[in-house]
Write a structure and sequence with these properties.
The complex is a heterodimer of chains A (450) and B (454). Chain A is an alpha/beta fold. Helices cover 42% and strands 15% of the residues of chain A. In chain A, the strands form 3 sheets. Chain A has a 6-stranded mixed sheet, sandwiched between helices. Chain A starts with 13 loop residues before the first strand and ends in a 14-residue tail after the last helix. Chain B has 3 domains: 20-157, Rossmann fold, CATH 3.40.50.1980; 168-282, Nitrogenase molybdenum iron protein domain (Rossmann fold, 3-Layer(aba) Sandwich), CATH 3.40.50; 288-446, Rossmann fold. Helices cover 47% and strands 13% of the residues of chain B. In chain B, helix 14 (319-331) links the parallel strand 10 and strand 11. Chain B is globular. Classes of the chains: A alpha/beta (450), B alpha/beta (454). The interface between A and B is large, with 82 and 76 residues. Strand 3 (87-88) of chain A pairs antiparallel with strand 1 (12-13) of chain B, so a sheet runs across the interface.
């Protein structure tokens, strides 16, 4: 055991399977002073809307929020690159005193005239409400003047958690959905939701669907375009990945336009195949879809299986720790790691809910530690105690893993490697292999438990 | 460009600056057994951690007081106290550095008062030292947060004992861990005891661990900071900092410690000034090792002068770094055609004139308070041979198809940002070789025959 202390208020957010009765607390604000790995409401909105490449994203507030999110995601666009710019009203002291409305209006108009976006989002950061800026009415005014949707995103950092930011982003997008023509959209059509085209992943998935004979009307939000979002209500099915971020919009579209949704994951062979089959099943009136799907799945698996087997030989028995944003990703990852012969000894998420953790518990082996909204000390403590060989997480967790002399795989939104789909599974296996089996770890100092 | 700044409501696009709590966090990571605590939303800590981690490739724990809606209505006092308590329980620090954010400043939290109250109620337990600094993100940039935290730390902790003054205080400005290590070597070789604040040379660039370090080893100790009031002299780097109420000037005012305000020692001219100051303070000659380093550097200048002469450079970053680099570039005949910063001290041009005597006749543009779109627009007109600054200029370099020499902070797209040496004769030597070779390589690559000698 390590001597790293666990804060009393955090004890209920940590569970070890087999050692105690399951009674996890989650979905609460992070504890002050705990050093949560979470970001804020703004972050939630920003990551969801970020990949919409022909929209202008203006961050209303002092400079920090814009600086730290400049070109931060590996969300690729096949055309415009406007989403990779960082725009800020850069509020100064006098704006805090006299209000930032004029600056917001002026900046907004100037940027729209310069970049000609098809829509504009205005992110309200922490102090915007406090200084009394009426963001909604300014957005409306600019929208009227410029003839494009200009949408406020109420993402004040302190008003909840990242999940509330997802919701604010969905609410903003809901204003665009339904404003375009749905002419020409057929019966075999769908929207891909909760897929952000990190390293081109949405293109891989879209390609599968097209080979199945399905039309992808809009991707929310990977390689996103305003015009496609406008007509997305013409699709006959919403296929939602990433549990947290897009469910709210899927619900809105179900209620308003009667579009059903299904939840999927594109990570790992098992879940990827299930996603395609579930979608094919939805269109069972058209049996040719299922037929095509079976062919695709068979072909894809045949192509990667021999190589995966090679990786499995060397990775078998290795232990992994995973810490992700939304818990949904963890489920797929556990399955994918198992298919490589690896065992998960720690699984945690920033924003999981009770059902997520229950499911995680069912999936995990005895002794696995499950963590909600963990901090660096907890993650390190259990990595050491459980003898993890690999950590899967984001940039913030990377140096932690390396300091402990264990491998790391980036599964967050900054990566440049596609991990979704069948080819993604191969990339994932290779990535895990190149970190776990690197010869450099032999130089790492011997670990002492203290 | 100045006229453009006068358009009243212009957005900042691709900022060439960060917010002030980042600078303060960096300082508190350079004090031994210290934890930074940002008084604001969770996102501030997490974004700043991520930004620093991507540069240093080291764990950077920064706590947050984690504002909620209630906190913004009723004040952040209760949250701040809980945060302090939880940090003590988890990290057992010797110092907690509290930096405010735009949120806590806007609601008007009186942090010093809250902390005084906390100390009173803390029933006799051994508490860590607590330093608080006001860093509203709407005021100044990360460099102001950096200097503000250094000053607040000195103001809170430094005192005057009755010991004989012999050590030298060094306030190095926002340099790389490698720079800080080099500075330590210089002081050691001079036989001069020194106290450097901050010192993240080890905390943000250390070896792998055999056991988990809650707070990475290294940093200026609280005890050392306490004795800064007893120093024989202070040296602070930064010609812009020289104009500001700095930690060095505070020690002069409070404890009569003489303060030497120098430029960041990049290039022969500015490094000579630093070594001369050390000689004056210690009464010792410059050690032979550095005489040799200086000699080799000038020898390299002679060998390479033709390759760099009248090359055109775009320089950007914190104003003091820009001045240091511009001083070096002009002393080897490179024209820093554009010297740009997101900072707005109002002194950039004046200070550049001090280090570049023919500034006016060279047609050099000095731009304060600009962003990377402004810098890119100006760069396109100036047809530079290379850019020098942080990795954030990459987009421009790619657009105009010119090389980018990565220095300073942040370097998010290459290895080893923490190990770039900028200062002293040795750092200048490395910069000179890098710049010369980039120019030589550009010509070589463009050659139709691909020659194999220079």
């Amino acid at each position: 055991m390590t001597n790293m202390p666990i804060l009393k208020e955090r004890e209920k957010q940590i569970y070890q399977k087999g050692a105690q009765a399951f009674d996890m607390t989650c979905e609460k604000k992070s504890l002050a002073g705990s050093v949560s790995q979470r970001a804020c409401v703004f972050c939630g909105s920003r990551v969801v809307l970020y990949p919409i490449a022909d929209a202008l994203h203006l961050i209303h507030g002092p400079i920090g929020c814009a600086s730290y999110t400049w070109d931060i995601r590996g969300a690729l666009s096949s055309g415009p690159q406007l989403h990779r710019m960082s725009f800020s009203t850069d509020l100064k002291e006098k704006d805090i005193i006299f209000g930032g409305e004029k600056k917001l209006y002026g900046s907004r108009v100037q940027l729209i005239d310069k970049y000609h976006p098809n829509a504009a989002f205005v992110y309200a950061t922490c102090i915007v409400g406090l200084i009394g800026d009426d963001v909604d009415s300014i957005c409306k005014r600019v929208s009227d003047e410029k003839g494009i949707p200009v949408l406020p995103v109420h993402s004040e950092g302190f008003k909840g958690t990242k999940k509330d930011g997802y919701k604010a982003a969905c609410d903003a997008m809901a204003h665009i959905v339904g404003t375009g023509s749905i002419e020409g959209i057929g019966e075999l059509s769908l929207n891909i939701m909760g897929e952000f085209n990190i390293a081109g992943e949405a293109w891989i998935i879209q390609d599968y669907y097209e080979k199945m004979g399905l039309e992808v009307v809009s991707v929310f939000t990977g390689d996103g375009r305003v015009d496609k979002i406008k007509r997305s209500h013409g699709a006959k099915l919403n296929v939602v990945q990433c549990s947290g971020s897009m469910m709210h919009l899927a619900e809105i579209m179900k209620e308003k336009y009667g579009i059903p949704y299904i939840r999927v994951s594109y990570f790992g062979i098992e879940d990827m195949s299930k996603a395609l089959y579930d979608v094919a099943e939805h269109f069972s009136d058209h049996p040719e879809v299922m037929e095509k799907t079976q062919n695709i799945v068979r072909k894809e698996i045949q192509a990667i299986n021999p190589v995966l087997k090679q990786y499995k030989k060397v990775l078998s028995g290795k232990k992994a720790a995973i810490y992700v944003g939304g818990a949904f990703k963890a489920f797929s990852m556990i399955k994918a790691l198992r298919s490589l012969g690896m065992e998960v000894v720690l699984a945690g998420s920033q924003t999981g809910n009770k059902d997520d953790y229950k499911l995680l518990r069912e999936m995990c082996n005895d002794g696995t530690v499950i963590l909600d909204d963990a901090n660096p000390l907890e993650l390190s403590k259990y990595c050491i105690e459980k003898g993890a060989d690999l950590f899967i997480g984001g940039v913030k967790e990377r140096p932690m893993a390396y300091k402990m002399g264990i491998g790391f795989c980036d599964h967050n939104h900054e990566r440049k490697l596609s991990l979704a789909g069948y080819s993604g599974m191969l990339n994932f296996a290779k990535e895990v292999y190149s970190s776990v089996k690197s010869p450099v770890w032999k130089f790492a100092p011997e670990k002492k438990l203290s | 460009m100045k006229a453009q700044k006068n358009i009243e409501y212009k957005a900042t696009s691709n900022a060439c600056k960060l917010c002030s709590p980042l600078g303060a966090s960096l300082v508190f990571r350079g004090i031994e057994k210290s934890m930074p605590l940002l008084h604001g939303s969770q996102g501030c800590s997490t974004y700043i951690r991520r930004y620093l981690i991507s540069h240093f490739n080291e764990p950077v724990d920064i706590a947050s007081s984690n504002f909620t809606e209630e906190t913004t209505i009723f004040g952040g006092g209760a949250n701040l106290k809980i945060a302090v308590q939880n940090i003590i329980k988890q990290y057992d620090p010797e110092l907690i550095g509290v930096a405010t954010t735009c949120l806590s400043e806007t609601i008007g939290d009186d942090v010093p008062l809250i902390l005084r109250d906390y100390n009173k109620n803390d029933s006799g337990k051994l508490s860590p030292a607590i330093v608080s600094v006001s860093t509203p993100s709407y005021s100044g940039t990360h460099i102001d947060g950096f200097h503000g935290a250094v000053k607040a730390t000195v103001d809170t902790i430094a005192e005057k004992g009755n010991i004989e003054a012999k050590h030298v205080n060094i306030f190095p400005n926002m340099l790389s861990p490698e720079d800080l290590r080099h500075l330590k070597d210089i002081f050691f070789d001079f036989g001069a005891e020194h106290i450097m604040l901050p010192d993240y040379s080890q905390t943000l660039d250390g070896p792998l661990w055999s056991e988990y370090q809650k707070i990475p080893e290294g940093g200026t100790t609280v005890k050392q900071i306490a004795s800064m009031g007893d120093a024989a002299a202070s040296i602070e780097f930064g010609r812009i900092l020289a104009e500001e109420e700095s930690a060095g000037k505070l020690l002069k005012k409070k404890f009569q410690v003489p303060c030497y305000s120098l430029g960041i020692p990049i290039g022969v001219n500015e490094t000579d000034v630093f070594f001369n100051a050390l000689s004056t303070i210690t009464g010792k000659p410059v050690p032979e090792k550095y005489v040799q380093e200086r000699g080799r550097l000038i020898d390299a200048y002679a060998d390479g002068h033709k390759y760099v002469f009248e090359a055109r450079a775009v320089v950007y970053g914190e104003e003091d770094l820009v001045i240091g680099l511009a001083s070096f570039l002009s002393e080897i005949g490179i024209v820093p055609v554009l010297c740009a910063s997101g900072g707005e001290s109002g002194h950039l041009k004046n200070k550049l004139c001090q280090v570049i005597p023919d500034f006016e006749t060279r047609g050099i543009e000095a731009l304060e308070g600009v962003d990377f779109v402004d810098i890119g627009d100006a760069a396109k007109k100036l047809s530079p041979d290379f850019l020098i600054g942080s990795s954030k200029g990459y987009k421009i370099a790619r657009e105009i198809n010119k090389p980018l020499i990565r220095v300073g902070f942040p370097i998010h797209d290459r290895m080893g940002g923490a190990r770039i040496l900028h200062i002293g004769y040795k750092g200048t030597q490395q910069l000179f070789d890098t710049i010369s070779n980039i120019i030589i390589a550009s010509k070589q690559d463009a050659s139709s025959v691909g020659y194999t000698y220079m």
